[in-house]
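User: Is it possible to get a 3D structure for a protein together with its bound compound? The compound here is (2R,3R)-2,3,4-trihydroxybutanoic acid. I've pasted both below.
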Amino acid sequence: MKLKRVTAILLAGVMAMGLVACGSGSDTAADTTTSTSTATDTADDSESSDLLGSADATIHLKVGTTPDGHYVLGLVEMQKKLEEYSNGEMTLDIYPNSALGGESDMMDAVSMGTQDMVLSSTGPIPDFSSATDNWATLDLPYLFETAEDAYKVLDGEIGQSLLDEFQGSGIKAIGFWENGFRELTNNTKEVATPADLAGMKIRTMENAVHMATYTALGATPTAMAWGEIFSALQQGTVDGQENPLAIILTAKVYEVQKYITMIDLFYSPCVLMINEDIYNNFTDEQKEAFDKAAEDGKVAERQISQELASSARATMEAEGVVFTDVNKDEWVAAVQSVYDDASLKIDQDLLAKIKAETAK
Ligand code: EAX
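Assistant: Yes, that's possible. Here is the predicted structure of the complex:
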Protein backbone atom coordinates (compact mmCIF):
# COMPACT_ATOMS: atom_id res chain seq x y z
CA MET A 1 0.00 0.00 0.00
CA LYS A 2 1.44 3.31 -1.05
CA LEU A 3 0.07 5.06 1.97
CA LYS A 4 2.46 7.97 1.92
CA ARG A 5 1.47 8.86 -1.63
CA VAL A 6 -2.24 8.45 -0.97
CA THR A 7 -1.88 10.55 2.15
CA ALA A 8 -0.08 13.27 0.26
CA ILE A 9 -2.67 13.31 -2.51
CA LEU A 10 -5.65 13.30 -0.21
CA LEU A 11 -4.09 15.75 2.18
CA ALA A 12 -3.50 18.13 -0.70
CA GLY A 13 -7.23 17.94 -1.28
CA VAL A 14 -8.01 18.47 2.37
CA MET A 15 -5.73 21.47 2.61
CA ALA A 16 -6.75 23.04 -0.66
CA MET A 17 -10.49 22.75 -0.45
CA GLY A 18 -11.64 21.26 2.78
CA LEU A 19 -13.56 18.04 2.57
CA VAL A 20 -17.25 18.60 2.30
CA ALA A 21 -19.72 15.88 1.56
CA CYS A 22 -22.29 17.82 -0.40
CA GLY A 23 -24.86 15.07 -0.41
CA SER A 24 -28.42 15.78 0.54
CA GLY A 25 -28.46 12.83 2.86
CA SER A 26 -29.31 10.50 0.02
CA ASP A 27 -28.29 6.91 0.53
CA THR A 28 -27.06 6.57 -3.01
CA ALA A 29 -23.79 7.97 -4.10
CA ALA A 30 -24.70 8.55 -7.73
CA ASP A 31 -26.54 11.83 -7.32
CA THR A 32 -24.01 13.49 -5.08
CA THR A 33 -20.51 14.79 -5.50
CA THR A 34 -17.75 15.68 -3.15
CA SER A 35 -15.04 18.26 -3.22
CA THR A 36 -12.35 15.59 -3.00
CA SER A 37 -13.02 14.46 -6.53
CA THR A 38 -10.36 16.74 -7.98
CA ALA A 39 -7.80 15.51 -5.50
CA THR A 40 -8.62 11.86 -5.90
CA ASP A 41 -8.93 12.03 -9.67
CA THR A 42 -5.20 12.57 -9.76
CA ALA A 43 -4.62 9.18 -8.12
CA ASP A 44 -4.73 6.09 -10.28
CA ASP A 45 -7.95 4.10 -10.22
CA SER A 46 -6.85 1.48 -7.72
CA GLU A 47 -6.08 4.21 -5.22
CA SER A 48 -8.85 6.68 -5.82
CA SER A 49 -11.89 6.98 -3.65
CA ASP A 50 -14.60 9.54 -3.06
CA LEU A 51 -16.21 10.42 0.21
CA LEU A 52 -19.37 8.78 -1.02
CA GLY A 53 -18.83 5.10 -1.76
CA SER A 54 -19.37 3.16 -4.94
CA ALA A 55 -22.82 3.58 -6.48
CA ASP A 56 -22.84 -0.18 -7.17
CA ALA A 57 -22.79 -1.09 -3.48
CA THR A 58 -26.13 -2.14 -1.99
CA ILE A 59 -25.19 -1.32 1.62
CA HIS A 60 -24.16 2.30 2.15
CA LEU A 61 -23.13 3.04 5.73
CA LYS A 62 -23.32 6.73 6.50
CA VAL A 63 -20.47 7.76 8.80
CA GLY A 64 -19.97 11.21 10.33
CA THR A 65 -16.88 12.94 11.73
CA THR A 66 -16.06 16.42 12.95
CA PRO A 67 -12.93 17.97 11.38
CA ASP A 68 -11.36 17.08 8.07
CA GLY A 69 -7.99 15.43 8.12
CA HIS A 70 -6.70 12.20 9.59
CA TYR A 71 -10.13 10.79 10.55
CA VAL A 72 -11.40 11.26 7.02
CA LEU A 73 -8.27 9.87 5.40
CA GLY A 74 -8.54 6.75 7.57
CA LEU A 75 -12.21 6.35 6.71
CA VAL A 76 -11.41 6.65 3.01
CA GLU A 77 -9.01 3.73 3.45
CA MET A 78 -11.68 1.75 5.29
CA GLN A 79 -14.20 2.53 2.56
CA LYS A 80 -11.85 1.19 -0.11
CA LYS A 81 -11.17 -2.00 1.87
CA LEU A 82 -14.83 -2.54 2.71
CA GLU A 83 -15.74 -2.45 -0.96
CA GLU A 84 -12.90 -4.86 -1.70
CA TYR A 85 -13.61 -7.35 1.11
CA SER A 86 -17.37 -7.38 0.47
CA ASN A 87 -16.93 -7.76 -3.29
CA GLY A 88 -18.55 -4.40 -3.85
CA GLU A 89 -21.65 -5.07 -1.74
CA MET A 90 -20.79 -2.70 1.14
CA THR A 91 -19.35 0.78 1.33
CA LEU A 92 -19.05 3.89 3.50
CA ASP A 93 -20.51 7.30 2.73
CA ILE A 94 -18.31 9.74 4.65
CA TYR A 95 -19.71 13.02 6.02
CA PRO A 96 -16.98 15.17 7.64
CA ASN A 97 -17.08 18.74 8.94
CA SER A 98 -19.87 18.09 11.46
CA ALA A 99 -22.24 17.78 8.45
CA LEU A 100 -24.24 15.29 10.54
CA GLY A 101 -23.80 17.19 13.82
CA GLY A 102 -21.37 17.41 16.72
CA GLU A 103 -19.82 14.31 18.26
CA SER A 104 -22.27 13.95 21.09
CA ASP A 105 -25.27 14.49 18.76
CA MET A 106 -23.89 11.90 16.35
CA MET A 107 -23.40 9.34 19.13
CA ASP A 108 -27.03 9.84 20.14
CA ALA A 109 -28.13 9.50 16.51
CA VAL A 110 -26.14 6.29 16.02
CA SER A 111 -27.56 4.80 19.22
CA MET A 112 -31.09 5.62 18.04
CA GLY A 113 -30.47 4.34 14.53
CA THR A 114 -31.01 7.63 12.70
CA GLN A 115 -27.33 7.61 11.70
CA ASP A 116 -25.34 4.48 10.84
CA MET A 117 -21.84 5.24 12.09
CA VAL A 118 -19.61 7.83 13.72
CA LEU A 119 -15.89 8.22 14.34
CA SER A 120 -15.83 10.28 17.53
CA SER A 121 -13.17 11.28 20.00
CA THR A 122 -13.63 9.85 23.48
CA GLY A 123 -14.45 13.37 24.72
CA PRO A 124 -18.24 13.06 24.88
CA ILE A 125 -18.35 9.36 25.81
CA PRO A 126 -18.53 9.68 29.63
CA ASP A 127 -21.71 11.71 29.26
CA PHE A 128 -23.27 9.29 26.80
CA SER A 129 -24.74 6.89 29.37
CA SER A 130 -24.09 5.75 32.90
CA ALA A 131 -22.76 2.48 31.48
CA THR A 132 -19.76 4.38 30.19
CA ASP A 133 -18.82 6.22 33.40
CA ASN A 134 -15.33 4.88 33.66
CA TRP A 135 -14.46 6.19 30.21
CA ALA A 136 -13.60 9.40 32.07
CA THR A 137 -10.44 7.57 33.15
CA LEU A 138 -9.19 7.42 29.55
CA ASP A 139 -9.19 11.20 29.24
CA LEU A 140 -6.99 11.89 32.25
CA PRO A 141 -4.15 14.32 31.57
CA TYR A 142 -0.77 12.71 30.97
CA LEU A 143 -2.24 9.21 31.21
CA PHE A 144 -0.11 7.98 28.31
CA GLU A 145 3.44 9.10 27.62
CA THR A 146 3.58 7.74 24.09
CA ALA A 147 1.14 6.69 21.41
CA GLU A 148 2.64 3.17 21.61
CA ASP A 149 1.65 2.98 25.30
CA ALA A 150 -1.86 4.01 24.32
CA TYR A 151 -2.06 1.40 21.52
CA LYS A 152 -0.93 -1.32 23.97
CA VAL A 153 -3.76 -0.50 26.35
CA LEU A 154 -6.46 0.33 23.82
CA ASP A 155 -5.82 -2.63 21.52
CA GLY A 156 -5.60 -5.07 24.42
CA GLU A 157 -7.99 -6.45 27.03
CA ILE A 158 -8.51 -3.11 28.75
CA GLY A 159 -9.59 -1.42 25.56
CA GLN A 160 -11.84 -4.32 24.60
CA SER A 161 -13.58 -4.26 27.97
CA LEU A 162 -14.26 -0.55 27.54
CA LEU A 163 -15.68 -1.11 24.06
CA ASP A 164 -17.85 -3.94 25.42
CA GLU A 165 -19.48 -1.52 27.86
CA PHE A 166 -21.50 -0.17 24.96
CA GLN A 167 -23.38 -3.46 24.63
CA GLY A 168 -27.10 -2.83 24.71
CA SER A 169 -26.71 0.94 24.33
CA GLY A 170 -27.65 0.96 20.65
CA ILE A 171 -24.01 1.42 19.72
CA LYS A 172 -21.50 -1.26 18.82
CA ALA A 173 -18.05 0.20 19.53
CA ILE A 174 -15.65 -1.32 17.03
CA GLY A 175 -12.20 -0.07 17.95
CA PHE A 176 -9.90 2.76 18.89
CA TRP A 177 -8.51 5.01 16.20
CA GLU A 178 -6.40 8.10 16.95
CA ASN A 179 -7.12 11.74 17.56
CA GLY A 180 -3.69 12.37 19.09
CA PHE A 181 -1.80 14.30 21.71
CA ARG A 182 -3.54 17.58 22.30
CA GLU A 183 -1.61 20.85 22.16
CA LEU A 184 -2.66 24.32 23.28
CA THR A 185 -3.21 27.22 20.90
CA ASN A 186 -4.02 30.87 21.49
CA ASN A 187 -3.77 34.18 19.73
CA THR A 188 -2.65 36.36 22.62
CA LYS A 189 0.79 35.41 23.87
CA GLU A 190 3.37 32.68 24.24
CA VAL A 191 2.34 30.27 26.98
CA ALA A 192 5.21 28.33 28.54
CA THR A 193 4.09 27.61 32.09
CA PRO A 194 0.74 26.97 33.76
CA ALA A 195 1.13 30.44 35.34
CA ASP A 196 1.00 31.95 31.84
CA LEU A 197 -2.45 30.40 31.41
CA ALA A 198 -3.94 32.20 34.41
CA GLY A 199 -7.30 33.65 33.57
CA MET A 200 -7.26 32.59 29.93
CA LYS A 201 -10.52 31.25 28.52
CA ILE A 202 -9.84 27.91 26.84
CA ARG A 203 -12.26 25.87 24.76
CA THR A 204 -12.24 22.23 25.79
CA MET A 205 -14.09 19.21 24.51
CA GLU A 206 -17.38 18.41 26.23
CA ASN A 207 -15.63 16.34 28.88
CA ALA A 208 -15.63 16.98 32.63
CA VAL A 209 -12.06 15.68 33.07
CA HIS A 210 -10.76 18.07 30.44
CA MET A 211 -12.59 20.96 32.06
CA ALA A 212 -11.28 20.07 35.53
CA THR A 213 -7.78 19.86 34.09
CA TYR A 214 -7.89 23.38 32.72
CA THR A 215 -9.34 24.62 35.98
CA ALA A 216 -6.42 22.97 37.81
CA LEU A 217 -4.08 24.76 35.41
CA GLY A 218 -5.60 28.11 36.36
CA ALA A 219 -7.51 28.70 33.12
CA THR A 220 -11.24 29.16 32.62
CA PRO A 221 -12.54 26.23 30.57
CA THR A 222 -15.51 26.48 28.22
CA ALA A 223 -16.75 23.21 26.78
CA MET A 224 -18.15 23.25 23.28
CA ALA A 225 -18.47 21.05 20.23
CA TRP A 226 -15.84 21.28 17.52
CA GLY A 227 -18.20 23.04 15.11
CA GLU A 228 -18.39 26.10 17.37
CA ILE A 229 -14.65 26.68 17.74
CA PHE A 230 -14.01 29.13 14.94
CA SER A 231 -16.81 31.53 15.81
CA ALA A 232 -15.91 31.30 19.52
CA LEU A 233 -12.29 32.20 18.75
CA GLN A 234 -13.38 34.98 16.41
CA GLN A 235 -15.86 36.49 18.83
CA GLY A 236 -13.45 36.22 21.76
CA THR A 237 -15.74 33.89 23.71
CA VAL A 238 -12.52 31.94 24.23
CA ASP A 239 -8.86 32.96 23.98
CA GLY A 240 -7.59 29.58 22.91
CA GLN A 241 -8.36 25.93 22.30
CA GLU A 242 -6.53 22.63 22.18
CA ASN A 243 -6.32 19.90 19.58
CA PRO A 244 -3.73 17.57 18.08
CA LEU A 245 -1.33 19.20 15.58
CA ALA A 246 -2.89 17.04 12.84
CA ILE A 247 -6.21 18.85 13.31
CA ILE A 248 -4.69 22.28 13.99
CA LEU A 249 -3.02 21.95 10.58
CA THR A 250 -5.65 20.26 8.41
CA ALA A 251 -8.59 22.22 9.80
CA LYS A 252 -6.50 25.40 9.51
CA VAL A 253 -6.90 26.40 13.15
CA TYR A 254 -3.37 27.84 12.87
CA GLU A 255 -4.67 30.53 10.53
CA VAL A 256 -6.46 32.13 13.47
CA GLN A 257 -4.08 31.11 16.30
CA LYS A 258 -0.53 32.48 16.32
CA TYR A 259 0.83 30.51 19.31
CA ILE A 260 1.04 26.77 19.89
CA THR A 261 2.31 25.33 23.17
CA MET A 262 3.49 21.71 23.01
CA ILE A 263 1.94 20.48 26.24
CA ASP A 264 0.81 17.01 25.05
CA LEU A 265 -1.83 17.35 27.74
CA PHE A 266 -4.14 14.49 26.76
CA TYR A 267 -3.63 11.54 24.49
CA SER A 268 -7.00 11.59 22.79
CA PRO A 269 -8.25 8.38 21.24
CA CYS A 270 -11.29 8.19 19.02
CA VAL A 271 -13.74 5.33 18.65
CA LEU A 272 -15.35 3.91 15.54
CA MET A 273 -19.00 3.19 16.30
CA ILE A 274 -21.86 1.64 14.36
CA ASN A 275 -25.52 1.22 15.22
CA GLU A 276 -25.82 -2.04 17.13
CA ASP A 277 -28.80 -3.40 15.16
CA ILE A 278 -27.15 -2.69 11.84
CA TYR A 279 -24.06 -4.58 12.94
CA ASN A 280 -25.98 -7.46 14.49
CA ASN A 281 -28.04 -7.87 11.33
CA PHE A 282 -24.96 -8.26 9.14
CA THR A 283 -24.34 -11.80 7.91
CA ASP A 284 -21.17 -13.45 9.20
CA GLU A 285 -19.46 -12.64 5.90
CA GLN A 286 -20.52 -9.01 6.12
CA LYS A 287 -19.29 -8.79 9.71
CA GLU A 288 -15.95 -10.23 8.69
CA ALA A 289 -15.58 -7.78 5.79
CA PHE A 290 -16.58 -4.88 8.04
CA ASP A 291 -14.25 -5.86 10.90
CA LYS A 292 -11.28 -6.39 8.61
CA ALA A 293 -11.86 -3.12 6.78
CA ALA A 294 -12.23 -1.28 10.11
CA GLU A 295 -8.94 -2.74 11.33
CA ASP A 296 -7.18 -1.67 8.11
CA GLY A 297 -8.73 1.78 8.42
CA LYS A 298 -7.49 2.05 11.99
CA VAL A 299 -3.93 1.08 11.08
CA ALA A 300 -3.89 3.53 8.17
CA GLU A 301 -5.45 6.32 10.20
CA ARG A 302 -2.94 5.97 13.03
CA GLN A 303 -0.10 6.03 10.53
CA ILE A 304 -1.48 9.15 8.85
CA SER A 305 -1.98 10.72 12.27
CA GLN A 306 1.63 10.03 13.23
CA GLU A 307 2.94 11.34 9.90
CA LEU A 308 0.94 14.53 10.32
CA ALA A 309 1.96 14.91 13.97
CA SER A 310 5.62 14.83 13.01
CA SER A 311 5.42 17.03 9.91
CA ALA A 312 2.82 19.60 11.00
CA ARG A 313 5.10 21.73 13.15
CA ALA A 314 7.52 22.58 10.34
CA THR A 315 4.63 23.34 7.99
CA MET A 316 3.01 25.71 10.45
CA GLU A 317 6.30 27.32 11.54
CA ALA A 318 6.87 28.17 7.90
CA GLU A 319 3.53 29.99 8.03
CA GLY A 320 4.71 32.07 11.00
CA VAL A 321 3.12 30.15 13.87
CA VAL A 322 5.18 30.43 17.07
CA PHE A 323 5.78 27.11 18.84
CA THR A 324 6.70 26.89 22.51
CA ASP A 325 8.19 23.78 24.13
CA VAL A 326 7.56 23.34 27.82
CA ASN A 327 9.05 21.75 30.91
CA LYS A 328 6.56 18.88 30.98
CA ASP A 329 7.20 18.03 34.64
CA GLU A 330 5.79 21.38 35.68
CA TRP A 331 2.56 20.73 33.76
CA VAL A 332 2.26 17.15 35.02
CA ALA A 333 2.60 18.37 38.61
CA ALA A 334 -0.02 21.07 38.07
CA VAL A 335 -2.74 18.60 37.07
CA GLN A 336 -2.24 15.91 39.74
CA SER A 337 -5.29 17.04 41.70
CA VAL A 338 -7.49 15.89 38.80
CA TYR A 339 -6.56 12.27 39.51
CA ASP A 340 -8.06 12.55 43.00
CA ASP A 341 -11.15 14.56 42.14
CA ALA A 342 -13.99 12.35 43.37
CA SER A 343 -16.59 14.19 41.31
CA LEU A 344 -14.99 12.99 38.08
CA LYS A 345 -15.80 9.28 38.59
CA ILE A 346 -12.28 8.18 37.79
CA ASP A 347 -12.15 4.38 38.06
CA GLN A 348 -9.08 3.86 40.24
CA ASP A 349 -8.93 0.11 39.49
CA LEU A 350 -8.96 0.77 35.79
CA LEU A 351 -6.33 3.46 36.26
CA ALA A 352 -4.10 1.01 38.14
CA LYS A 353 -4.54 -1.57 35.36
CA ILE A 354 -3.61 0.99 32.72
CA LYS A 355 -0.54 2.04 34.67
CA ALA A 356 0.52 -1.59 35.13
CA GLU A 357 0.11 -2.26 31.42
CA THR A 358 2.10 0.76 30.30
CA ALA A 359 4.85 0.04 32.85
CA LYS A 360 5.48 -3.41 31.31
O1 EAX B 1 -12.67 14.39 17.39
O2 EAX B 1 -13.59 18.51 19.33
C1 EAX B 1 -12.38 18.28 19.25
O3 EAX B 1 -11.54 19.10 19.66
C2 EAX B 1 -11.90 16.99 18.66
O4 EAX B 1 -10.53 16.89 18.67
C3 EAX B 1 -12.43 16.80 17.30
O5 EAX B 1 -13.80 16.96 17.27
C4 EAX B 1 -12.05 15.43 16.74
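The beta strands are 59-64, 90-95, 117-121, 171-186, 201-204, 220-223, 240-244, 259-262, 267-275, 322-325. Residues 1-10, 12-49 have pLDDT under 50 and may be disordered.
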